[in-house]
Amino acid sequence: MVDDNNLQFSFSAPVRAYNAGLFLSKGKWIHSERVIDSYELIFVRQGTLSMHENGNKFLIKPGQTLLLWPGRTHGGTEFNPEDLQFYWIHFDVKAEKRKGTDTLIQIPQTVTLKRPDRLTELFRRFLDDQESKCLDQTSADLLVMLMLCQVAQAQRLSDSSGGTAVVLAQRAESYIRTNFDRPISTSTVARALDCNPDYLGRVFREIYGTSPTNFIHKVRLQHARALLMDTGMSVSQIARECGFDDSGYFRRVFRHNEGMSPLAYRKLYARVHVNIR
Fold first, then answer.
1. What is the pLDDT, as a whole number, of residue 275?
2. Of 69, 71, 149, 224, whose CB is crowded by the most CB atoms within 10 A?
């Protein structure tokens, strides 16, 4: 409708934005356990965020997003690095009856963005307007829609090139990081991704320079080092927590990669920690 040369029309976005922020870690930090009544989109800018939702574990790296759902329990799975930085925003999806002509947007729970700079720009715009008190509800809702469209687009681009070696290797990496504490091997990863184990091994080595088996060990040992430094768990308990059924095998793998036993590593870290403090 045109009124005195002003274009007027009604508009209602399918989402409602609430508040947003930029989290900057000032030391070792673990996300508290909680249940919220809105969606939360997290976008990691620096460091790696360790989270779970209803027991499903996620390791979100720079340039990746995580969508947390309302009514589900989420929290941290381990202490996060001191350099961790991530954007977050809370929003709701309005319960409206879908029309046949409406476009359906599918938002994956986690995805790697092809152009993370675009999502960064949207978050900066939202936060700048929010802090300057000039963010009206319609603008906030539209900015959230644009954020979600960026996430959905990243998933579509990933799906469209799903047969490429790079995407297959990335999917394998994500699967390993999510399931490292379970009994997994190259064969189980290949089975989960519906591909040939030998082909997966070749592709993974081509992209990451190591085999899936070695990468599984790498992720497990990364978690083991954190537990050795930050908990009083026994070596056997840590082995089980990291996906090793045999604590003796865990000790051999740890010594081979770190050049010392798990207990020696713990003692060394304790001395370094005291010196730093």
1. 25
2. 224
